[in-house]
């Protein structure tokens, strides 16, 4: 009985350790649109991993970041546009890892809703992911731009603000 309990405990620890790391998938091929559509669950897995893991664990987050970058650089049906007037945190190099979360939130929204060209909601969901992550890690991200975005989000004005930024850009 003690042997079984010990074996079960070791198995639970091993599963827990394995669950703490994301491994870049070796069997995913990204050449055609169909390849990207089939790999959407893997993209979501990588994004969820980044959202749920400590930002200081740079080594543990590396493969998830690599998969997201690889996937985003070739996906033919989702376009994520980075606009520094909306993604105001980009200018601070300490916020570099938030870029993956913002793009990931946009893509997750696109995958979940099948709305691939909704720039307003894409930006909103991307920023929402960043804000949620920063709220879970308040000691890591203290940038004033994050604070301002969070205030807009909490007041319910973030979407209107994004719309105004997009409208101003389109008028130029």
Describe, in plain words, how this protein is organized in 3D:
It is a single chain. This protein is mostly helical. It has one domain. It contains eight helices and no strands. It has helices spanning 2-19, 33-38, 40-52, 58-72, 96-113, 119-136, 144-155, 158-171. Helix 3 packs antiparallel against helix 4 (58-72), helix 3 packs across helix 5 (96-113) and helix 5 crosses helix 6. The longest helix has 18 residues, at 2-19. The radius of gyration is 18 Å and the shape is globular. Residues 1-19 have low confidence and may be disordered.
Topology:
Elements: H1 2-19, H2 33-38, H3 40-52, H4 58-72, H5 96-113, H6 119-136, H7 144-155, H8 158-171
Helix pairs in contact: 3-4, 3-5, 4-5, 5-6, 6-7, 6-8
The assembly state of the depicted protein chains is single chain
Task: Report the helical percentage.
Answer: 55-70%
Biggest pleated sheet: none
Write down the overall mean pLDDT.
86
Tally of extended strands?
Answer: 0
Distance between the termini: 74 Å
Poorly predicted runs are: 1-19
Can you tell me the overall shape? globular
Strand content: under 5%
Number of continuous helical runs: 8
Return the domain count: 1
* Structural class by SSE content: mainly alpha
Whole-number radius of gyration? 18 Å
Order of helix and strand elements from N to C terminus: HHHHHHHH
Key features?
172 residues, mainly alpha, globular
At a glance:
The chain has 172 residues and is mainly α.
